[in-house]
Write a structure and sequence with these properties.
Elements lengths: L1 H29 L3 H13 L3 H13 L7 H13 L3 H13 L7 H12 L4 H13 L3 H13 L3 H9 L13 H14 L3 H11 L4 H15 L4 H14 L2
Helix pairs in contact: 1-2, 2-3, 3-4, 4-5, 5-6, 5-7, 6-7, 7-8, 8-9, 9-10, 10-11, 10-12, 12-13
C-alpha cells in the first residue's frame, strides 16, 4: 500500500509539474520572454503535452526563442493536432495551405481546418471557406463563411462581402448595398486601413439613399444573434430582384 501511495504521489507530482511548465511557458511567451518559454515548454512538449507541443510549434514557425524552422513547426503541430488540440489543427491547416515546412496541399489543409472548424473554431471555419473557394466549391465555402461570420469573425464577413461587390470575374450576383454594409461592419469591428479603404471604395459607387439603406442593414447585421437572419433576408431580396 505504501509503495502504491508513493507511486501515485510521484505520478501526481509529474503531472502538476508539467501543467505548471505549460502555464508558465505560455505566460512567458505572451510577454516575449522566449528563453523562459522555451525552458518551460520544451520538456512538457517532449513529455507529450499537446498545448506545449502547439506552443513550441509556434515558436519554431515564427522564430521566437529558436531559429525559424517550418519543418520543426509542422512536426510539433502535428504531434499536438493528432491529440486533438484544436489550435494545432488550425495551425497545421495553415501550414499545408501555404506550403510552409510541407508541400502545399489544399486537401490536407481542408482536412485539418475541418477538424478544428467542427469543434467551433471561427478562424478555422473562415479558412476552411477559403480553401473551399480554392477547390471550386462555392456553396461549401459560403456555408463556412456564414458560420464563422455568425460567431463574429470579421474576416469571414469580409469574404462574404467579396461575393457581392462585383469585383470578381464571372460574378453572377451583385449587391453593392450588401457589400457596403458588410464592409462597414468589418471596418467597425477591425478599424484597420484595409477594411476602411474597402468600405470607402464601394461607398463611392452608391447614392446617398443607398448608403442610408446600407447603414440600416449594417445595424441589423450587427445585432446580437441576428447576423444570419438579416443576411438571409437581404439575400432573398437580392435574388428576387434579379
Amino acid at each position: 500500500m505504501t509503495k502504491l501511495l508513493i507511486a501515485m504521489l510521484l505520478g501526481s507530482g509529474i503531472a502538476v509539474c508539467a501543467y505548471a511548465g505549460v502555464k508558465e511557458g505560455t505566460a512567458a511567451y505572451r510577454t516575449n520572454n522566449f528563453d523562459v518559454a522555451l525552458k518551460e515548454l520544451r520538456p512538457a512538449a517532449q513529455e507529450g503535452d499537446a498545448a506545449a507541443q502547439n506552443m513550441l510549434g509556434a515558436m519554431y514557425q515564427y522564430g521566437k526563442g529558436v531559429p525559424q524552422d517550418y519543418v520543426q513547426a509542422v512536426d510539433w503541430y502535428k504531434k499536438a493536432a493528432m491529440q486533438g488540440e484544436t489550435v494545432a489543427q488550425y495551425n497545421l491547416g495553415f501550414m499545408f495551405k501555404n506550403g510552409l515546412g510541407v508541400k502545399q496541399d489544399y486537401m490536407q489543409a481542408k482536412d485539418w481546418y475541418l477538424k478544428a472548424a467542427t469543434k467551433g473554431d471561427p478562424l478555422a471555419m473562415n479558412n476552411l471557406g477559403s480553401i473551399m473557394d480554392l477547390l471550386n466549391e462555392p456553396i461549401q465555402a459560403m456555408n463556412w463563411f456564414r458560420k464563422s461570420a455568425s460567431l463574429g469573425n470579421a474576416r469571414a464577413m469580409f469574404n462574404i462581402a467579396g461575393k457581392f461587390c462585383g469585383e470578381r470575374e464571372n460574378q453572377q450576383v451583385q449587391d453593392l448595398i450588401l457589400c457596403y454594409s458588410l464592409r462597414k461592419l468589418v471596418a467597425t469591428i477591425e478599424p484597420v486601413k484595409k477594411a476602411i479603404d474597402a468600405r470607402d471604395k464601394v461607398a463611392g459607387k452608391l447614392s446617398k439613399p443607398q448608403i442610408a439603406e446600407g447603414d440600416s442593414l449594417m445595424l441589423e447585421l450587427q445585432k446580437e444573434g441576428n447576423f444570419l437572419a438579416a443576411l438571409d433576408l437581404r439575400l432573398k431580396k437580392t435574388v428576387n430582384s434579379k
